[in-house]
């Protein structure tokens, strides 16, 4: 199935990067701002409750989480979340999943075109590139912010003509599988990430660790 793959779209958080380490404390900082300014009631969130928002772009996250919150306040809270994540990455508190770098190196040496595709900000992407030396592996970095927060499937649609077929989308959330399927790409679901088993049921195959890609591609 995957023998003719030339181009690989990689989700980041939950696929290569253990994003919970920086997202959970950042989310809590953003929510703290909402509570302190009277826009939300105090609440203790479990790690699982917070991690469910990993993989959403900013617009979809707020439309699902607090749709009645004024847009200006959504943006203020998002800025707090984003800047907190950036600071934590810069301080070295973020980490990739085991075998992420080895797998990227293997795929790059095999001649695949590797594309970073994430519902993140440009600054978060930039800090991650520096922190993890991702410039050694990826050919381009496609972020939600760069494309005005359009869905991943629309980002792929805009750029796929630049790259060689066949292509595969790799990710841990339903957004990733949907993005691949809507563009007739092969899809690989990551069961070790933050999505439920049900989110990955349409994937062509499922991996339990990023290192398994070396046996597939």
From TrEMBL:
GO MF entry, a single one: phosphoglycolate phosphatase activity
Pfam families: HAD_2 (PF13419)
Hydrolase as UniProt keyword: yes
GO BP terms in the entry: DNA repair
UniProt-listed InterPro entries: HAD-like_hydrolase_sf, HAD-like_sf, HAD-SF_hydro_IA, HAD_2, HAD_sf, PGP-like_dom2
Classification via SUPFAM superfamilies: HAD-like
Keywords from the named record: Hydrolase
Coiled coil regions in record: none
NCBIfam families from the UniProt entry: HAD-SF-IA-v1
PANTHER family: PHOSPHOGLYCOLATE PHOSPHATASE
Protein name: HAD family hydrolase
